[in-house]
Amino acid sequence: MLLLILAAIFIEALLLSLLLYNFLFKGRREIEQRVAEVVSRRTTTVREQELRVPFYRRAVKPILLKMSLWMIKALPIEKETQLGRKLVKANLNEAIEPRELLVIKYLAGIAGAALLWMLGDMLGKGFMQAMVLSAAGLGLGWYMPDFYINSKGLNRMREIEKSLPDVLDLLTVSVEAGLGFDGALMKVVEKTKSALSQEFTLMLKEIKMGKPRIEAMRDMSNRVDVDDLSTFTGSVIMADQLGVSIGNILRLQSEQIRQRRRQRVEEMAMKAPVKMLVPMVLFIFPAIFVVLLGPAALKIANAF
Fold it and tell me: Which stretches are transmembrane (predicted)?
């Protein structure tokens, strides 16, 4: 039984390591493959073309897909849609599917439960204590992928909020210079490299494929789920429908977004003193009281 647990833990750790390697070095491998394709002049064989595909797509992804087919009954449609939205916000929807994420959560939960069970056994804990540790490991392993995806999505939303005013300034300059809105977006994509430019690139691809610009902008707003970007897209859509000048709308939106960002910073600064009270009361004030009142308390105790 112990050997089976160790084998399962090794396989799950290997799969998680490969997934992490794929997330971290995906862009670098794609660039190296493109450079190799441009530099290399000889024709590649079918085997070489297959070996150029990342190991995650060749070996790990098919395994996760087969396991997800077994577990599909445990994933309601609403839950699959929710996981898909989280992956889209974190920009991981091309690397992993919601069903594969469910398999990873199951594997991580089982690995966490087995590891903490073995830890409790090594420390000589009783059966009930080992069960509690195993339950804690199960919950930790189950929620760790969600925590990673949510944190990645939150960081991406913050990056979009931070870069939006500068992008709007570049859009305003491009539109006032005589470019159309789509041409200004293409200029922004060429000059900037950020999460927002990636969203603009996807939106332009959808427009080229035949989707109306209004629908593409609404889909981008729903996909990113950033309030400032939703306000910007709504203003552009309204200006397009009413025939208002896009340049004035862009300049006004840039000023308003900068003002809202300044207000958020001021709000965070006003909250800082209140948040500082907790560590001061728990850690700083007791140390000060010990230093100031400690000698007096000792003298009083010696006197009585």
Answer: 6-24, 102-120, 126-149, 277-298
Domains of the chain by residue range: 1-24+57-155, 159-260
For residue 8, the tally of other CB atoms under 10 A from its CB is 14
Q: Report d(CA 260, CA 227) in Å as an integer.
A: 11
3-class secondary-structure state, position 174: helix
Rounded to the nearest 10 degrees, the angle between the axes of helix 77-89 and helix 213-224 is: 90
Is residue 86 within 8 A of residue 149, CB to CB? The reply is: yes
Task: Count Cα atoms within 13 angstroms, Cβ side, for 122.
Answer: 7
Q: 98-122 and 2-39 are packed helices; what angle lies between their axes, rounded to 10 degrees? A: 140
> Which residues neighbour 191 within 8 Å (Cβ) at sequence distance 6 or greater?
170
Dihedral sign, CA of 25, 88, 155, 196?
A: positive
Q: What is the reported pTM? A: 0.65
CA 229, distance to chain mean position in Å, is 18
- CB of 160 closer than 8 Å to CB of 199: yes
Do residues 168 and 232 make contact, with C-beta atoms less than 8 angstroms apart? yes
Q: Where are the alpha helices (DSSP H) in 40-56?
A: 46-52, 55
- Distance, in Å, from the CA atom of 230 to the CA atom of 26, rounded to the nearest integer, reads 30
Question: How many whole angstroms separate alpha carbon 236 and alpha carbon 216?
Answer: 12
Rounded CA-CA distance 267/278 in Å is: 18
Q: Split the chain (304 residues) into runs of 10 and give each run's mean pLDDT.
A: 69 75 70 68 60 63 64 64 81 78 80 82 76 84 86 88 85 83 85 84 88 87 84 84 80 84 85 84 84 82 80
Locate 4 and state its tokens.
Answer: 């089976």
Pick the CATH number of 159-260 from 2.40.128, 1.20.81, 1.10.3410, 1.10.260: 1.20.81
188: tokens are 């922004």
